[in-house]
Amino acid sequence: MDPLSWGRGWYAIQSISGSVIQYLKEVARDKPPDELVWPFRLFLILLGYSTVAIPAALLICYVRRNRHAFETPYLSIRQILRSFAVGNPEYQLIPTGEKQASSSRKDGDSIPQTRAQCINVVILLLFFFSGIQVTLVAMGVLQERIITRGYRRSDQLEIEEKFGETQFLIFCNRIVALVLSFLILSKDWTKQPPHVPPLYVHSYTSFSNTISSWCQYEALKYVSFPTQTICKASKVVVTMLMGRLVRGQRYSWFEYGCGCTIAFGASLFLLSSSTKGAGSGITYTSFSGMILMAGYLLFDAFTLNWQKALFDTKPKVSKYQMMFGVNFFSAIFCAVSLIEQGTLWSSLKFGAEHVDFTRDVFLLSLSGAIGQIFIYSTIERFGPIVFAVIMTIRQMLSIVLSTIMYGHELTFWAAIGFLIVFIAIFVDIHKKYSDKKRVPQRS
Predict the structure, then answer these.
(1) Whole-number mean pLDDT of the chain?
(2) Which domain holds residue 332?
(3) Which position has the higher pLDDT, 81 or 17?
(4) C or N terminus of the chain, fewer CB within 10 Å?
(5) 174 and 71 in one domain?
(6) Cα torsion angle, 395, 400, 401, 405, sign
(7) Is residue 92 one of the residues assigned to a domain?
(8) According to the model, what pLDDT value does residue 224 have?
(9) One domain for residues 75 and 139
(10) Cis (ω within 30 of 0) for the bond into 384?
(11) DSSP H or E stretch at residue 348
């Protein structure tokens, strides 16, 4: 396949996909988005993404078949295409068979061997946790401000209008994160390790992250509060199982037991402390809701483990390379979807015609970009399991903080669940610490 044929194929796919999407939109024109069944909406999203994925797959196949023609000693379009489709295997330091063994050893390196190392690890973990907490809280406040409150028109200040295109906010978030990571990479380019895997591998993270977020929001319409709580609390166990499939990481029965104990304690805490608020929400669980929550857990667990697998390559992918690659593909996915649905230009027009909207979107995107740095740093240093535990604890601490600030009572069973979670975490850490000290003594 020559480049001209590839270009014609891409144009044909774009035309067919655009026609299908336009036809489906005409069919669903009289129905608001919330009344469309979720498989139909998911199909529209996947159809839009396919206009990027299929031509990219054809391009990858073409470059791999003719990889020698794309080997150039200087930076050019051919060299970029080779890095995109083939990568840079000449920089691989160790055989593939030894990678998993080193990955397994690296997962245990986060366990300190001395008291001083333990203090340093705790301080670093608290720093990452605080950064994630602050950025996520800021994002939540700004998202609520943008979605729920109106913005005054610049030409008619007495008129307020609401903005409802959430995918545009995701697109802006990805663009700001992309620019931030590019500036960091350009400043410290000589200090960055060579990127061994093909660049397209970051598209898997972008796709799984986008679909997991969509499944989570969509499931809120179909699942009960207890079901949602238990599913989110079980993220640790699902992440461990996905790590076994994606990275070949082996966990002991003791570690699986600690993960299940954390899930049980978190579920007990969240359900007991939110009994009053649960009555006002959805009280039923449907088959669609269970499928969507399963999709959320699986795609989210894949995202964390796939990122960890890239961090474990030798030489490892840096967090800024990861950040750039993921946001690059996410920005393309969102842009194509917005253009095909005809909402990109209308969103830009809304920002130009309303006061303070652009400022709030920029602050939202900036907080999300900084949050990504903390998230990638946590996964790189401590692994996906620790990050999943951090997100579970964050949800619990936010409820404790709300209880203290507003004078609510913390139930007995909520306190028991809180203790169960932290006891399981400290028991797991103590066992790993003891095993780490026992190994040098044996040797």
Answers:
(1) 77
(2) 118-438
(3) 81
(4) C
(5) no
(6) positive
(7) no
(8) 66
(9) no
(10) no
(11) helix 344-353
Q: Are residues 172 and 310 in the same domain?
A: yes
Structure tokens given for 129: 């946790």
Higher pLDDT, 361 or 282: 361
Do 135 and 81 fall within a single domain?
no
Reported as half-sphere exposure (CB side, CA atoms, 13 A), residue 408 has a value of: 18
DSSP state of 281: S
Single-letter amino acid code for the residue at 203:
S
Per the structure, the count of domains in the chain is: 2
- Helix (H) or strand (E) segment spanning residue 143: helix 115-148
Task: Indicate whether 181 and 288 sit together in one domain.
Answer: yes
Of the given ranges (73-87, 97-111, 242-256), which has the lowest mean pLDDT? Answer: 97-111
Give the mean pLDDT of 243-265.
Answer: 84
Q: What is the pLDDT of residue 15?
A: 58
Q: 233: which residues sit within 8 A by CB, 6+ positions away?
A: 262, 263, 264, 266, 267, 270, 392
**Helices first, then strands: H and E counts in the chain:** 17, 2
> Are residues 278 and 321 both part of a single domain?
yes
Q: Which of 174-183, 232-241, 288-297, 423-432 has the highest mean pLDDT?
A: 174-183
Do 423 and 283 lie in a common domain?
A: yes
Same domain, 81 and 196: no
